[in-house]
Q: What sequence folds into this?
C-alpha cells in the first residue's frame, strides 16, 4: 500500500489540510483501475467506514487492477462544527455545495473535443482512449493552476483536485449517504450493465 498526501488548504493558524490517498497496486497491469472517494460532504461519514473496510480487505486480498482510495475527500468540511452539528455540505464562506464545482467544459473546450473526435475517426479505440485521458489530465492540471485554494474558490479547488486524481483511473466511485433514502446509484446509460454487480435496487440515469 502506498500513501500520498496532497495539501489543499492552509488554515489561519498555519496548519495544513491534506487529501490522503492509499494506493493498492494491482497484480495485472492490463486490468481496469479504480478510484473510490468518500466524504466530499463532510458529515456523510458512512463512506469513510466502507473505505476503511476496503483497505483491510485489499491488504489481505490484493486487487487485480490498481485501486486508489480517498477516505476523506473534504477534511475541511468534516472538521467544521456548528455546535454538535457537522456543517459539511456547504462551504461556510461562500455557501457553495461541496459537490457542485467539478471542472466544467467551456465552448472552446467542446470545440477541441469535436476536433479530436474528427481527427481520430479511424484511430484504434485503445489509442484514442489513452490520448484523450492524457489530454484531459493536462487540461485539469491547467485548471488547478488558475484556482485560488482559499476563500470562495476552495470548493472548486477541492473538487478539481479529486477530479484530477480520479481521471488517472478507468472507474470512479463517489460514495454518499443520506439520513433517509432508498439505496440508489447515479449511473450513465453505458454503465448500467456493470452497475448491476453492486446489487443496489435503484438507478438514477
A:
Amino acid at each position: 500500500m502506498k500513501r500520498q498526501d496532497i495539501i489543499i488548504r492552509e488554515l489561519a493558524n498555519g496548519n495544513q489540510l491534506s487529501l490522503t490517498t492509499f494506493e493498492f497496486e494491482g497484480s495485472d497491469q492490463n486490468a481496469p483501475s479504480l478510484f473510490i472517494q468518500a466524504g466530499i460532504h463532510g458529515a456523510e461519514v458512512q463512506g469513510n467506514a466502507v473505505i476503511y473496510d476496503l483497505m483491510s480487505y485489499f491488504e489481505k486480498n490484493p486487487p487485480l487492477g490498481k485501486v486508489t482510495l480517498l477516505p476523506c475527500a473534504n477534511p475541511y468540511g468534516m472538521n467544521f462544527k456548528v455546535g454538535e452539528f457537522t456543517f459539511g455540505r456547504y462551504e461556510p464562506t461562500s455557501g457553495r455545495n461541496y459537490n457542485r464545482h467539478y471542472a466544467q467544459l467551456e465552448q472552446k473546450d467542446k470545440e477541441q473535443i469535436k476536433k479530436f473526435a474528427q481527427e481520430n475517426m479511424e484511430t484504434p479505440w485503445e489509442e484514442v482512449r489513452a490520448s484523450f485521458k492524457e489530454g484531459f489530465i493536462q487540461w485539469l492540471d491547467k485548471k488547478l493552476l488558475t484556482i485560488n485554494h482559499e476563500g470562495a474558490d476552495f470548493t472548486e479547488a477541492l473538487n478539481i483536485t479529486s477530479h484530477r486524481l480520479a481521471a488517472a483511473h478507468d472507474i470512479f466511485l463517489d460514495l454518499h449517504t443520506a439520513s433517509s433514502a432508498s439505496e440508489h446509484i447515479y449511473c450513465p446509460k453505458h454503465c448500467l450493465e456493470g452497475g448491476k454487480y453492486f446489487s443496489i435496487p435503484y438507478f438514477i440515469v
User: Anything to note?
Assistant: The chain has a mean pLDDT of 89.
